[in-house]
Design brief:
By secondary structure, the protein is an alpha+beta fold. The protein contains 11 helices and 12 strands. The relative contact order is 0.17.
Length: 345
């Protein structure tokens, strides 16, 4: 494990994307999203996104394309992915949604037919830090990860969603799958031939199992709630598909090209009881919440996202930890694209 300075890793990612034909401002934004995700602690979706770009940029993703605003009303907007980076579509959606929320109190922006966003948490930090409540629902058109409740064969991706709100201190940031677990945690376990402690999957006969290899042998991941209460995650995943249909995107379809559609809602508490009152009540409530007696093995009650935000702050000063294997893979990308190797601290 080695550390790489934040600015150095960001510059490396931006140079790599520029070498793939991405204009400099867009290259820097997309690279910054990857670096932030790595620093936040979601290493399965951080700088590894560059390996995804190596396959997709110039084939599926047009490096020079920009997402396109298709339609808008006072409180809504629709964006077409237009073969641009999903990160650019998310940037445009956030800018429009926060502006409209200031004007209207609530805003909803839908994006159809875009590309993989990676981890959702980092996208929720800016609106929450600006004083807004936000939610983000993400769907994948051709993902085959999770079966409907009562079924065996997958008909959904993991269809993640994220929630965020300000607290007066660190914001609450949470993102999770509508399935029992994210694919980013499943794939390494399959490759390593390991099993989980819990029965998170069903095999080809519908029997619960802790072996993730069942997904490659005719089985499926379970929805959030598991074998008995999976109707909860099933309903959430259906909601994500409905939002996709409303945006004119493609609901899950094995014959469709791999695309993500997503929906961002931003709420300004000033439009309701007022931001000052909101902050006072949240401060009181969170203080009360933290007085709950701790379970064995716990030392504190944290807000979702608190550890990631502290990790971000630490990484800006001390650098971002990267495994030697990942550094080697990034340097191989650099070699293939005529770039200098990544320097470590």
């Amino acid at each position: 494990m080695k550390h790489v300075a934040w600015k150095r890793l960001l510059a490396f990612g931006a140079r790599y994307l520029e070498a793939k034909g991405v204009p400099r401002p867009n290259a820097r934004h997309v690279a910054e999203t990857a670096v932030m995700t790595e620093a936040y602690g979601v290493t399965t979706h951080g700088v590894r996104v560059f390996f995804y770009f190596e396959r997709m940029v110039g084939t599926e993703i047009d490096p020079k394309a920009e997402p396109r605003l298709v339609r808008e009303t006072g409180a809504t907007a629709l964006i077409d992915g237009n073969r641009a980076f999903g990160q650019l579509a998310m940037k445009l959606a956030t800018e429009i949604a926060t502006r409209k929320a200031k004007e209207q109190g609530v805003a909803m922006v839908a994006v159809r037919d875009s590309f993989w966003l990676g981890a959702l948490a980092v996208y929720m930090i800016p609106p929450a830090e600006a004083g807004f409540l936000a939610q983000l629902w993400v769907q994948h058109s051709s993902g085959r990860d999770c079966a409907p409740f009562g079924g065996i064969e997958p008909r959904f991706s993991t269809n993640p969603f994220a929630l965020a709100f300000p607290t007066g201190q660190l914001p609450m940031i949470s993102d999770f799958s509508t399935a029992v677990i994210a694919m980013g945690k499943v794939l390494p376990m399959i490759d390593a031939g390991k099993r989980f402690d819990e029965e998170l999957f069903i095999d080809r006969s519908g029997k619960p199992t802790n072996d993730p290899r069942a997904m490659r042998e005719g089985g499926s991941m379970l929805p959030t709630g598991g074998a008995k209460h999976g109707y909860r995650g099933y309903a959430l995943s259906l909601w994500s598909e409905a939002l996709t249909a409303a945006a004119g995107g493609r609901c899950n379809d094995p014959d469709s090209p791999p695309r993500q559609s997503f929906n961002l809602t931003v709420i300004d508490p000033e439009a309701f009881a007022g931001s000052a009152g909101y902050r006072r009540e949240m401060k009181r409530f969170l203080a009360w919440m933290r007085t709950s007696r701790l379970r064995p093995g716990f030392t504190e009650i944290r807000l979702p996202g608190e550890r990631g935000l502290k990790s971000l702050a630490k990484a800006r000063k001390a650098g971002i930890p990267l495994e030697d294997e990942v550094i080697g893979q990034l340097n191989e990308l650099a070699r293939k694209n005529g770039l200098a190797a990544l320097e470590t601290i």
